[in-house]
Batch of 2 targets.
Target 1
Amino acid sequence: MNTPSNVLVVGAGAAGLAVVESLRRKGYRERITLLGEETHAPYDRPPLSKQVLAGTWHADRTRLRTKDVLDALDAEFVLGVRASALDAATRTVRTESGAELRAEAVVLATGLRARRLPGLSGTAGVHVLRTLDDAARLRGELLEAERLVVVGDGVLGAEIAATARLMGTDVTLTGPQAAPMQAQLGHQVAALLAALHTEHGVRLLPDTLVEALETAGGRVTGVRPVGGGTLPADLVVAAVGSTPATDWLAGSGLVLEDGVVCDSRCRAADGIYAAGDVARFHHEALGRSLRLENRTNATEQAMLVAANILGEDRPHTPVPYFWTDQLGVRIQMHGLPGPAATPHIVEGAVEEGRFVAQYLDGEGGPVAVLGWNMPKQVNQHRRQLIGRYAPAAAPR
Ligand SMILES: Cc1cc2nc3c(=O)[nH]c(=O)nc-3n(C[C@H](O)[C@H](O)[C@H](O)COP(=O)(O)OP(=O)(O)OC[C@H]3O[C@@H](n4cnc5c(N)ncnc54)[C@H](O)[C@@H]3O)c2cc1C
């Protein structure tokens, strides 16, 4: 494909910004427009549930780049404007303000929207956490709250519970799993995480679905689990997952199936690409489609998309990776362990509070490695996964 005469990126988050930066780094000098519905300049989300919620970082510190650095990109930033429709055939994006933007290459980087508990819009004291504005609202109430119930025991729910507990709040963390983050960590390591939370005073209510919230005068007063009883609460966070922000793409001509469906080059249609949390791409080494919701992938995939826009032909074959910080522990996971994989400790020990666990599949092959407060060592063990996830890549 010839170099496009202009590029439009929709979604001004980590992935969107990385596409722009990467294009410029590669010498692309044509017009670039970055359209984002949030009014903030691109910022980083991982600190929202950690430093920003805790108040150890001011919101400004989450900015991904200073104004000078953004200016030097010589891109047009259109912020506070939502894209409302796309015509994939003509690569035309319509905005809510009525503008039509047409480009030779369009990148979809609209991320996710937090799922909400049904029927509760307008109930005071019920929050989600996806954006900087969500974090400011939640922190404001957390400073006053006595009893927080976090509904949802995935990564985000566990992080929010951990941060709030360190702030001195009475916290209950409830969700359908036997232990927090079991889907990501497997039951053995999730049990260790559960123990860590319990040691710090987080009350865990596992294997539990929530039936309803109780309210009085328009404000939440408690959480009612299926099976009876009430958990009193003056603050509730719903961390019950997210959905790809593709609502505006209905009727665009693209295939949407839990994300924007792309090929292994992250191409959704001729001249249209997707990157970051919203992109469902074909992972050639795994032989299946994948959508990754993590910060490292947002940048790596964006860089690959920029390269492919400029005529390279590279497949996206990452070793999936995420980290989380909770209660003084950094957990890092490289690879996808899957429910059947078993972890074996290969460095450190649980008793030392630091270890590396290698997850083996049924045939004894490594499918993932996890570091528990062992960042340097887990990185070394990651190398053994490259053959499985990125066979064409040289060992790093
Ligand atoms: C609280 C929190 C903590 C996290 N912690 C970690 C962590 O510890 N480790 C880790 O690996 N990952 C973490 N993540 C995940 C990581 O932040 C995401 O994977 C990353 O932000 C994805 O970047 P993105 O650019 O794809 O999407 P986003 O960052 O969501 O950016 C998408 C942007 O597109 C905008 N947009 C959406 N629809 C439209 C539209 N129609 N028109 C215009 N703009 C639109 C959105 O408003 C948003 O600004 C965390 C996420 C959250 C929310």
Note: The mean pLDDT is 96.
Target 2
Amino acid sequence: MATISKEARQYPDLTSGYNQRWSGTPESVVLVESVEQVAPVVQEAVRDGKRMTVNGAGHCFEDFVYNSDVDVVINMKHLDAVYYDPAMNAVAVEAGSNLLNVYEKLYERWGVTLPGGLCYSVGVGGHVSGGGWGALARRHGLIVDHLYAVEVVVVGEGGEVRRVVATREEDDPNRDLWWAHTGGGGGNFGVITRYWFRSPGATGREPGEILPRPPRHVLLSAAALSWDEITEAGFTRLVNNYADWHVRNSRPGSRAAGLFGLAVLNHRSNGQIGLITQVEADLPGADDLLAEYLDAITDGVGAPLQPMTASMGEYNAMPGCYEAQRLPWLQATRFLGTNNVDLNNPTLRADYKSGYMRGNFPDKHVATMYQSLTSTDIDNSTATMHLQGFGAQVNAVPESATAFAHRSSYFKLYWQVLWDDPADDDEHLTWLRRFYADLYRDTGGVPVPNELTDGCYVNYPDVDLNSAEHNQSQVPWYRLYYKENYERLQQVKKRFDPRDVFRHAQSVRLPD
Ligand SMILES: Cc1cc2nc3c(=O)[nH]c(=O)nc-3n(C[C@H](O)[C@H](O)[C@H](O)COP(=O)(O)OP(=O)(O)OC[C@H]3O[C@@H](n4cnc5c(N)ncnc54)[C@H](O)[C@@H]3O)c2cc1C
């Protein structure tokens, strides 16, 4: 264990998140290296009345870890072992692991994986507890759908600290704490030290038999459309085609569940709109599935596909994938997740928003998208809205079975804008806020749960949802994230964090 104080050389490297808008001036950063070290650190902070936050891998979209109030940051990054635990018959993943570390360890040793996020450096600490979605979700569900147990260091009413292991076993008295970590989000109940994974229904006693197997090979395709060749009518067609394909092709277990598609709708200043697609190459007729999908998406758009030569958010240009590449699964995963240097840009500033979709876009949604993406208010090639493939196996799980409640959408929306200079904050925040407010103007500026939209993703947190100015829907932020699961999360909060030690702008509140 190492305690890094303000004087230490490495302090500046350990006091800001991936998004440089979020930094703190804590008295200390404590780097823990074993599960046993966590409870004493928490106990000391509680005893001394210090405000404490937990850093998994620092990818939080808001300031929940690094902010001006924090006194002690517990940094989990060096607690990153991945191993089979025979006592649990599950694979243990320590809470400081990042996704690529997990994928490599699970796959190279045992030929299995977890269906988590795309970006290599995302930490499991925040990611798993918030749901965890990625390229294999349509086939295998969310990462939390494979969560068997979690270990959390919690603080009792009297300030006493203890380690609790909670499993999904029906007779586990701590089962609710497990449930709260299947979509409740990080920074809410205690310090997560370990997760254990075993797929529901798995009967084997070998790590290779208890977790999902990814395809041996995938087809990775990256194609683009030039903004110079897209009219408003063509754009409308493209967006409606994408939505329509997902509405029609998202049955759990279907052949189409083996296809994961992103439509990267960049601001016009990027020059291109991207279509990034991954298909299980082992599927019979995989090439046809990919070709049929690209034909369906581009049908009537009136602009030819071309190589993706522009960088798009966290994806770099991929001209080599214009002809789909047949790649071993792990190589493709590593390539997609690491190929953009922007992920390590030390001046990166960013803002994000999200929404779930249960059907195709009404015309006025698409008109707003076109208007915002061609607006001359900004000139930023990273300003983008992604349509992200979802549904299929994700929707095979009932909404109350896990804390993750968005189980009827076919695709989801992710807005992202990146910039460098703090002087440009207003310009970018204004553009993104206006885009979102215009799109959802009929529902108070946010994607309320209804027959078309279905709230927001807690792993893409957005504190604007708390604000009466930006959320005029009468649907509070917690309902957008958790829908009808919120009250149960509050009960877990009351039982396991009754002093509200673990809190941030959007943490689960104690019940009244
Ligand atoms: C570039 C990028 C790509 C992304 N791609 C995806 C994706 O493909 N799919 C997807 O679903 N999401 C994605 N995300 C979102 C990601 O899942 C969340 O940002 C997630 O919360 C990150 O977890 P972290 O541990 O890295 O972040 P942190 O900033 O360290 O933590 C996030 C929250 O979790 C809490 N937390 C972290 N560790 C612990 C712990 N051990 N105990 C208790 N609380 C903890 C923190 O206190 C904070 O409140 C992406 C984010 C980025 C920046």
Note: The chain has a mean pLDDT of 97.
